[in-house]
Write a structure and sequence with these properties.
The complex is a heterodimer of chains A (about 120) and B (about 110). By secondary structure, chain A is an all-beta fold. Chain A is built from no helices and 11 strands. The chains are: A mainly beta (about 120), B mainly beta (about 110).
């Protein structure tokens, strides 16, 4: 399977714990995006990378959230001191990131986080 | 005005019928537009990009109206398998902001 992969698929954690999610983009896609989606809502943009550079962060991304893409390949999203409001589906997408739009994105299956 | 707005539906449509829905966007600098399909508890999947000249892919037709700032999706001869949520996506290339609508739910009835 050469699509976007995410691990774990499901994560249940207690409030206050730290969690880390991983995303492996489609090979040679240099753009990688993180989104959060809750029931009945569209995906909300969190952040994105062009290669290893983090180019934009949403205001939704509080200080408890951090994302990295150290070698320009896979990325991790860490949430520290989780809160119940963090419960959501965390989606990763990648894009070829050509110099010009349109930037079609291809999504992974997501990581469903439940904070108890 | 929200950046990207869609009628949440649900649209309940008999099989074989034609259905259309619109998506409006507020930023006139938006440059790229897409329709994604999302099945229940699954990830969004790219359905089609929307080009200025409009484009068609089988039973699906997408159009862009820059003057009125909306895009549309038309589904002809609807199938039961078309039941899903359809997400409108708008990208402003200037600041690379990508905005998803909340989606329109479509139910195709047998």
């Amino acid at each position: 399977d050469t699509g976007v992969s995410q691990n774990p698929r499901h994560k249940i954690t207690k409030r206050g714990q730290n969690v880390t999610f991983r995303c492996d983009p489609i090979s040679e896609h240099n753009r990688l995006y993180w989104y959060r989606q809750t029931l009945g809502q569209g995906p909300e943009f969190l952040t994105y990378f062009q290669n290893e550079a983090q180019l934009e962060k949403s205001r939704l991304l509080s200080d408890r959230f951090s994302a990295e893409r150290p070698k320009g390949s896979f990325s991790t999203l860490e949430i520290q001191r989780t809160e119940q409001g963090d419960s959501a589906m965390y989606l990763c997408a990648s894009s070829p990131g050509r110099d010009r739009p349109p930037y079609e994105q291809y999504f992974g299956p997501g990581t469903r986080l439940t904070v108890t | 005005r929200k950046e990207v707005e869609q009628d949440p539906g649900p649209f309940n449509v008999p099989e074989g019928a034609t259905v259309a829905f619109n998506c409006t966007y507020s930023n006139s600098a938006s440059q790229s537009f897409f329709w994604y399909r999302q099945d229940c508890r699954k990830e969004p999947k790219l359905l089609m990009s929307v080009y200025s000249s409009g484009n068609e892919d089988g039973r699906f037709t997408a159009q862009l109206n820059r003057a009125s700032q909306y895009i549309s999706l038309l589904i002809r001869d609807s199938k039961l398998s078309d039941s899903a949520t359809y997400l409108c996506v708008v990208n402003n290339a200037r600041d690379d902001k990508i905005i998803f609508g909340k989606g329109t739910r479509l139910h195709i009835l047998p």
